[in-house]
Amino acid sequence: MRSESIRASRPVERREEAGPRESQCVGRPVLRLGDRDPVDRHGAEERQQVSRPRSRHVGVDDQHRPLVHDRKRRGDRFALSLSRIVHDVGSVLGRERPGAARVRFGHEDRRPHDSGSRENPAEHRVRDVGALCLRELEAPLCGGSAEGDDDARHGGDTTQVSTPRDPQNAEIAAKLDAFATLLELADANSYSVRAYRRAADVLRDSAVPVAELVRTGRIREVRGVGPGIEARLRELVETGDLHELKELEERVSPDLVGVGRMLGLSAKRSMDIAQTLGVRTLDELREAASQGRLREVPGIGPKSEQKLRAALAQDLSRPPAHALLLNRALALTNEIAESLGAQPAGDARRFRDRCEQLAVVAPPQEPADAIRRFEELPQIVALVEREDRRAVGVTVEGVPVELLVPEPGKAGAGLIRATGAAPYVEALEPLPDGGDELEVFGALGIPWCPPELREEPFRGEPPPLVDLPDIRGDLHCHTTWSDGRGTVEEMAQAAIERGYEYLAICDHTVAVSVVPGLDADAVRRQGEEIAAANERLAPFRILRGIECDIRADATLDLPDDVLAELDWVMASVHAGQRGSRDELTKRTVEAMYHPSVSAISHPTGRLIDRRPPNALDLDTAFAVALETGTALETNGLPDRLDLKDEHVRQAIEAGIPIVVSTDAHSTRGLGNIVLALGTARRGWATAADVVNARPLEAILASRKPGLLDR
Ligand SMILES: [Zn+2]
Ligand SMILES: [Zn+2]
Fold first, then answer.
1. Any residues with CB less than 8 A from the CB of 208 and at least 6 apart, and which?
2. Cα(185)–Cα(281) distance, rounded to whole angstroms?
3. How far is the CA of 476 from the centre of ligand 2 (A)?
4. 3-state SS string over 584-632?
5. Which helix (DSSP H) or strand (DSSP E) does residue 411 occupy?
6. What is the mean pLDDT of the chain?
7. How far is the CA of 589 from the centre of ligand 2 (A)?
């Protein structure tokens, strides 16, 4: 039973390899029904968008409990929006856990120019960096990779039982994670980095005390634990620490690594520079460069020196080459804003799928003080620019974050400029003063615009975008029956806590092969478990669903009679993403013609920054979705967000309903609804466009959501 629970909770590998370049044009114009202006269309609905851009209620939930929203508020259709979503993200994040020391990274070696009021430096020692802090730096909010790895790094919410002096599983896992992060900074081979992360994930969720497994010599039975990891676990259990971890912390200079990444240097090169030249900060690096000392570093010849000096001379606040996934960017922006009492802005406030420009806007105050506090934040490893009312810091990933401290009375314009995409903002200029956004929009004589729509110039009345209270259930999640980490009942409980009316369990089918999948027999056995859980949980309803693989020959991976028994069928292409346009289109379209298939999951199969969208012909897919009444998903896994924003918009304009779902592989994964929702909002979706904004009866009323409202 013990090994069973360990096995059941193991993380999964991504099942699909990123293909070589196969980016075909898939985002072409779609058929439009009457070519109506979406704003006009939505304007016909009479709900009101109420904006409260000022009230930034960012909550910290130590229990990192999922959001429980109040169904009673559904009636009044209160809006919105970022403040609310950010609030939710804050609670989903669950940072600031009890006992999580938020310790500054590398601070003691910072240049001393921020005169005075230095806090106790002991508080900032590198070696004190708690693993939780590292984990925050690495992977806040539900991880980031698809298919089960989504929140694999975020255990710690289960209480482990073991003898008092043994390190708890969560502590052990945290140390392994910290080790992995520093190995990564040190450019160790990625295989071992992944191995440590994976072991950390498995051990964190082990129902059995890891210390006991180590002592009894059974630890190697745990998947992913080889001799190397076993040796480190033994050391951890016996001494409570890892000497290599300490050594690495001394060797790696996270702030220089952060700056180095921004300059295009590998972490290893940054560390070579740190070691050879004895520099730890950007200023010291600049000084060493101006003294011509860079050539002392092994591997830096005249050419690289020249390049590096040129990079150092540039404006360092330019967008980085590497963007952050939305979950990470949101978390980072939100954490920083919260610490400073500032407002989140930048790309994350618009819920872009890849965020390059991170920004927060501080309340009007003494700017020097705000900048000092910004510089001391654990997320900021170095300050790369400093002006009177503006500073740019850099994270350990090398991503610049801008802090703006507007003058009194100009906060509204500051926030609008720091939030919108350039074309949107430029079209509004010159912006009048105003203490908040509402004042500025008011003075401009145009309605307040939800941040997600601030891309292209727009002065009109925005549609009543779908919002969290509209969402009545999640129609795509996994359980321990396939590669999920929660049981049917655990997932359902979590959905109830979120205020949902229903949850569709959509585990994989066998064709997926790399992870466990359900055959007909298993689907029926799962059905019995679901029926029993439904009796206990009524009136909440667990829907018997499936994420049915669309096989290479375009057939579905379960017999028709089994599919017909189910309440909700999602169909997905997993293998063969590199197939031709014809193949992928045929597979997707034939699945839509199947009478039991209600929606197509992650239709384009993209993995952000890792795999381009597949060659699916979206025009054809939209036409057949419309014809058959099949819905399309916008998947909330942070590296999928598929359909993406513009495709959501095209689908909606074509009249195709959208499923806004998380593809959660754990209870925490359900929190990614904000990512799917943000994506749908960027696609101008209203509640009327979203299948899971419908009541349960409507979900059960038709296998083809698109046929219902006709
Ligand atoms: Zn899938
Ligand atoms: Zn899935």
1. 2, 5, 6
2. 16
3. 6
4. HHHHHHHHHHCCCCCEECCCCCCECCCECCCCCCHHHHHHHHHHHCCEE
5. helix 411-419
6. 77
7. 19
Could you please report the per-residue DSSP string of 81-119? -HHHHHHHHHHHH--S-TT-----SSGGGS-TTS-S---
The ligand with the least distance to the CA atom of 504 is 2
Question: pLDDT digit string (tens) for 166-177?
Answer: 778 877 887 887
Identify the band that residue 320 occupies on the pLDDT scale cut at 50, 70 and 90: low
Q: Give me the count of residues in the chain.
A: 710
Q: Say how far apart CA 197 and CA 23 lie, in whole Å.
A: 31
How far, in Å, CA of 678 to CA of 665, rounded?
A: 20
Q: How far is CA 651 from CA 32, 140, 597, 620, in A?
A: 9, 31, 18, 11
Mean pLDDT of 54-77: 28
Q: How far is CA 577 from the centre of its chain?
A: 23
Handedness of CA 696, 698, 702, 703 (dihedral sign): negative
- Is pLDDT at 81 greater than 80 in this prediction? no
pLDDT of res. 32: 29
Q: Which ligand is nearest to the CA of 571?
A: 1
637 C-alpha to ligand 1 centroid (Å): 10
Taking the C-alpha atoms of residue 51 and residue 79, their distance in angstroms, rounded to an integer, is 7
CA angle 185, 187, 190 (to 5 degrees): 105
Grouping H, G, I as helix, E, B as strand and the rest as coil, residue 366 is coil
pLDDT at 474: 98
Q: How confident is the model at residue 79 (pLDDT cuts 50, 70, 90)?
A: very low
> How do residues 216-255 score in pLDDT, each as one tens digit?
889 988 888 888 899 999 999 988 888 887 777 677 776 7
Q: Does the model's pTM come out above 0.70?
A: no
Is the distance from CB of 378 to CB of 362 less than 8 angstroms? no
CA of 575 to the centre of ligand 2 (A): 13
pLDDT in tens, 36-49: 333 333 322 222 22
Instruction: Report the sign of the C-alpha dihedral through residues 474, 476, 478, 479, in that order.
Output: positive
What residues have their beta carbon closer than 5 A to ion ligand 1? 572
Give CA–CA dist 587/603, Å, rounded: 11
Cα(571) to centroid(ligand 2), Å: 9
H or E stretch covering 474: strand 473-477
Distance set, CA 49 to CA 70, 79, 305, 686, 691 (Å): 18, 5, 55, 11, 20
Indicate the range of 19-23, 112-116, 266-270, 402-406 predicted with least confidence: 19-23
Cα 570 to middle of ligand 2, angstroms: 9
Ligand nearest to the CA of 574: 1
Nearest CA to 680 out of 699, 701, 657, 703 is that of: 657
Q: How far is the CA of 337 from the centre of ligand 1 (A)?
A: 34
Find all residues with CB under 8 Å of 527, minimum gap 6, and list them. Answer: 544, 565
Ligand nearest to the CA of 573: 1
Q: How far is the C-alpha of 137 from the C-alpha of 116, rounded, in Å?
A: 27
Cα of 485 vs centre of ligand 1, distance in Å, is 15
Structure token pair of residue 431: 């912006």
Considering the chain, what percentage of its residues have pLDDT values greater than 90? 50
Return the structure tokens found at 548: 């049915």
* 11 CA → ligand 1 middle, Å: 15
pLDDT digits (tens, 9 = 90+) for 90-135: 222 322 223 222 222 222 233 333 333 333 323 222 222 222 222 2
Q: How far is the CA of 673 from the centre of ligand 1 (A)?
A: 16
* Alpha carbon of 587 to ligand 1 centroid (Å): 15
Contact 469, 435 (CB under 8 A): no
Cα(276) to centroid(ligand 1), Å: 47
